[in-house]
Amino acid sequence: MNAVGSTPLLELRGVRCVLGGQPVLNELNLQVRRGERVAVIGPNGAGKSTLFHAISGLRPLRAG
């Protein structure tokens, strides 16, 4: 079986994170499977660092 397309190694469903009363991540869904490379890009304030803090457990979530 091809490793790509198998069960996700990382899966986020409906992730919601609020900072200072403002939603930063809202209903975020993401799947990363074995063998995939994923880049998170965007302008300042888009939520990239918040996403990594949420994945690592450093940022509390409202949902997901």
Write a brief structural summary.
The chain is mostly beta strands. It contains one helix and two strands. The chain has a two-stranded antiparallel sheet with strand order 1-2.
Q: Explain this structure to me?
A:
The chain is mainly beta and 64 residues long. Helices cover 14% and strands 38% of the residues. The protein contains one helix and two strands; from the N terminus they run ββα. It has one helix at 48-56, and strands spanning 8-19, 22-33. Strands 1-2 form a two-stranded antiparallel sheet. It is globular, with a radius of gyration of 13 Å. The mean pLDDT is 87.
- Order of strands across the main sheet: 1-2
Could you tell me the number of beta strands?
2
Structural class: mainly beta
What is the gyration radius calculated from CA atoms?
A: 13 Å
Number of helices: 1
Q: Enumerate the spans where pLDDT stays under 50 for 5 or more consecutive residues.
A: none
Percent of residues in β-strands: 35-45%
- Give a quick account of the main beta sheet: strands, pairing sense, barrel closure: 2 strands, antiparallel
Estimate percent helicity: 10-25%
General form: globular
Report the order of strands and helices.
EEH
Distance between the termini: 30 Å
Mean pLDDT: 87
